[in-house]
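Worked example 3 (structure in, sequence out).
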């Protein structure tokens, strides 16, 4: 068996293909040293067959999967199991958010051999070297493995690397497997939208966030110049006209954001990224203006809650407040930047009345935000706990009797799959009526203000739904909004909450 590496991005998107950045970074980490190939499950009808077409050559010894929760996990589990049964000598290595946060379920499944916990830029080549040379695993940072006694060993974490020093992403080679234009899809931002990841981690420690256990409040970004060079390369070669920045927190550094804006300004590209309200509230007017002039039309913010107590409970960094959320939505109007605010409803409370009052408060608050800036895009999630041990919220979650799945296959039971999509929280403190209220409010709100990110819905259809939903919205009547649901179904309304941004 030769020592080639096959990297697989299990299916995660229905029709919006994006550059598979996770495995492309891993390909870059071994490029020139080991031969590699990429399979993108988003572009394949039968991924297992495709994987087998490589493995049956006998040349591929290593199989790397990137895995995030939700539908991607489903295809990852089904294909890993089938492949490992047929090719037991293949070394199966998983990376990405799911295995990093759930190592026991993954390694005890019996079909995954190693996990890369967080960044794989050094860990992955080091692991392959160790396997090739028969050297020990214990000094490989960011590696999780089982020792001879089948005990799961979590090695220490590596310091975050200087992002500019990483090898260039092998776009041209990816283009040989799948033509790059296939990944540059039409979105509300542009005709050919590029997905780019310019920084890793996040400096904050929100208690519900899956980034925290992996990055532990660390963040490192590529320089503005490096980001610009990469974007420009793809623009010139394949015609990208818009960018989705996939960073957890693109706007951590005001200086970098402004520098990038200065560089990209004349390229006539539209772009989008994720940020924090408290961080960006501190940006100067001139910076916000520069960002908008450079083509940034819409920014995603985790507003989470309008209630200061809940914000503190979520450890939202301490400086974000309800007032700030509203003021900032209003301030952005002046710059013509659309704030896309996500809220988390249904956080735990000591009594059912308190939980219900919390939901009502948020509904009222969202209406206030819409009032000051009707263009604000609202995304509503129901609170889904992540195991961030030690946090106040985590303690409350465990005290309520909530349990995480134990085995890998439990994670793809239908109930857990919709939990991952943040739709069905399975949380003991939420009653069916409370969940209905959240959903129904969401339906009415989406009726009054259909998202701009849905490029298929015509103005006429929007107007028709809006008229009907407004009647309910005005008088807070959210029960059984079947007529709105029906229209949304007929006109196939796109929901960013479940389909990703
Ligand atoms: C792009 C993206 C998507 C795309 C998928 C695109 C694709 N692959 O085709 C879309 C929009 C479809 C999507 C959807 C969802 N996503 Co998503 N997504 C992301 C996002 C923004 C970027 C991922 C990425 O490309 N990163 C760039 C690479 C370079 O970083 P990386 O993945 O961390 O990779 C490094 C390491 O992790 C490691 N590594 C990763 N993979 C591998 C593989 C191997 C073999 C090795 C060795 C190492 C390794 O090495 C890499 C380089 O150092 C992340 C957040 C983020 N900023 O990472 C969320 C994120 C992964 N998504 C998340 C979620 C929850 C979802 C959804 C389930 C829910 C939702 N509503 O968004 C949906 C449903 C997914 C589905 N249908 O299966 C969460 C996961 C949270 C968790 N609990 O684990 C994240 C972290 C966002 C967040 N902060 O909440 N998503
Ligand atoms: S600011 Fe966003 S990415 Fe950072 S810890 Fe909080 S939720 Fe996670």
């Amino acid at each position: 068996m030769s020592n080639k590496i096959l990297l697989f991005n299990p299916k995660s998107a229905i029709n919006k293909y994006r550059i598979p950045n996770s495995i492309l970074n891993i390909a870059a980490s071994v490029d020139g040293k080991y031969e590699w190939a990429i399979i993108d499950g988003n572009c394949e009808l039968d991924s297992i067959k495709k994987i087998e077409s490589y493995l049956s050559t006998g040349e591929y010894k290593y199989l790397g999967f990137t895995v995030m929760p939700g539908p991607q996990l489903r295809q990852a589990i089904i294909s890993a199991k089938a492949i490992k049964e047929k090719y037991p000598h293949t070394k199966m290595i998983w990376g990405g958010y799911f295995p990093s946060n759930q190592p026991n379920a993954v390694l005890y499944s019996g079909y995954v051999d190693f996990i890369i916990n967080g960044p794989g830029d050094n860990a992955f080549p080091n692991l392959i070297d160790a396997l090739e040379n028969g050297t020990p695993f214990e000094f490989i940072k960011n590696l999780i493995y089982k020792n001879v006694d089948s005990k799961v060993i979590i090695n220490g974490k590596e310091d975050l690397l200087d992002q500019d020093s990483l090898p260039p992403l092998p776009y041209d080679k990816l283009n040989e497997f799948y033509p790059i234009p296939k990944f540059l899809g039409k979105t509300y931002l542009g005709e050919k939208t590029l997905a780019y990841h310019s920084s890793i981690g996040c400096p904050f420690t929100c208690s519900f966030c899956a980034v925290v256990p992996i990055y532990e409040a660390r963040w490192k970004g590529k320089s503005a110049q490096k980001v610009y060079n990469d974007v420009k390369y793809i623009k010139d070669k394949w015609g990208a006209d818009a960018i989705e920045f996939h960073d957890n927190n693109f706007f951590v550094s005001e200086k970098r954001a402004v520098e990038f804006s200065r560089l990209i300004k004349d390229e006539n590209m539209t772009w989008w990224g994720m940020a924090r309200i408290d961080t960006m509230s501190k940006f100067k007017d001139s910076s916000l203006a520069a960002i908008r002039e450079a083509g940034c039309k819409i920014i995603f913010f985790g507003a989470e809650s309008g209630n200061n107590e809940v914000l503190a409970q979520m450890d939202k960094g301490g400086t974000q407040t309800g007032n700030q959320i509203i003021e900032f939505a209003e301030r952005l109007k002046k710059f013509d930047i659309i704030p896309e605010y996500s809220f988390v409803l249904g956080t735990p409370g000591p009594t059912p009345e308190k939980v219900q009052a919390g939901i009502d408060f948020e509904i009222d608050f969202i209406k206030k935000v819409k009032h000051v800036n009707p263009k604000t895009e609202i995304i509503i999630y129901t609170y889904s706990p992540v195991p961030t041990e030690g946090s106040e919220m985590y303690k409350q979650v465990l005290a309520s009797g909530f349990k995480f799945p134990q085995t890998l296959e439990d994670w793809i039971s239908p109930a857990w799959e919709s939990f991952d999509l943040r739709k069905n929280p399975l949380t003991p403190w939420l009653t069916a009526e409370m969940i209905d209220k959240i959903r129904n409010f969401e339906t009415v709100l989406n009726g009054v203000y259909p998202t701009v990110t849905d490029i298929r819905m015509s103005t006429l259809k929007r107007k028709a739904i809006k008229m009907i939903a407004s009647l309910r919205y005005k008088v807070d009547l959210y029960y059984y909004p079947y007529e709105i649901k029906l229209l949304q179904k007929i006109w196939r309304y796109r929901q960013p909450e479940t389909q990703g941004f």
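Notes: Residues 4-154 form a domain with the Rossmann fold fold (CATH 3.40.50.2300). The chain has a mean pLDDT of 90.
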